[in-house]
């Protein structure tokens, strides 16, 4: 797709003049709706499962009117497209039907008749009345939140009736949502999703033979929370979740590094050094860890220099502002 400015439905003049460009295009397209109201032409095949109802989708799209080269609507200029939920954020019936026919990585072209697009009235001033529109859509990814939403709405007693694998699956979905929000720099919203996942995992006890699965899932969420709180500039909370991660895996490099970063922000330099040296022991050539230790050494030198200067001023004889020797 790539945000092309030209309408892929505009055909050249040597095509048959008796039909409009969209009519000619529609002849080689697949009927999705059964009444030729939603037509599809696959440009690039995708892979994996089809989009599920109530999923949240990550897409790039451009919409065109017939005989117009420039898109009337497009999100291709955005660096990070917004996650949109079917049935809520996507208002075009045709687009929802089209997305339900797609797989991850697929790029497709769709024609939507007015009934499946903007209706008989259109959407002035951009969309004239009774317009057929063309959309190019690329499905980057999708997350199925319906199962997670239904499960989280249950009481703790009801959730306990499900096997651990169900809880792990729902928690993983919540964490994936958090990861997406984190990548969009929506750190507060990501924190909410991570905490939701952690609550599910904490609330559910696991039998001994499955304990390692629950602990692995908890560790990933705790690391995410520690990193998120660093981004939110709340190092105390970042340290708390980092230390909880270390209870599960005392040699986890990411947890040690996050705790070191948090202590550095809190100006607890000795604790920061302890964590970072432990992290360096696990990964001696890690560029980020070694840089953080250099940063710590620089901060510590500056801090000690200021401490010495303050002590010198306090106890220097005859200096203005001294706390002793003045009448």
From TrEMBL:
Example of a GO MF term: peptidyl-prolyl cis-trans isomerase activity
Keyword presence, Lyase: no
InterPro entries xref list: FKBP6/shu (IPR042282), PPIase_dom_sf (IPR046357), PPIase_FKBP_dom (IPR001179), TPR-like_helical_dom_sf (IPR011990), TPR_rpt (IPR019734)
Region (Disordered): 1-22
Compartments, as annotated in UniProt: Cytoplasm; Nucleus
BP-aspect Gene Ontology terms: cell differentiation; meiotic cell cycle; piRNA processing; positive regulation of viral genome replication; spermatogenesis
Catalytic activity reported: [protein]-peptidylproline (omega=180) = [protein]-peptidylproline (omega=0)
Pfam families from the UniProt entry: FKBP_C
EC number from the UniProt entry: 5.2.1.8
Top-level lineage group: Eukaryota
Keywords annotated in UniProt: Cytoplasm, Differentiation, Isomerase, Meiosis, Nucleus, Repeat, RNA-mediated gene silencing, Rotamase, Spermatogenesis, TPR repeat
PROSITE patterns: FKBP_PPIASE
Domain PPIase FKBP-type per the UniProt entry, residue ranges: 54-143
Gene Ontology, cellular component aspect: cytosol; fibrillar center; intercellular bridge; microtubule cytoskeleton
Protein family per UniProt: Belongs to the FKBP6 family.
Record-given protein name: peptidylprolyl isomerase
Classification of source organism: Eukaryota, Metazoa, Chordata, Craniata, Vertebrata
Record gene name: FKBP6
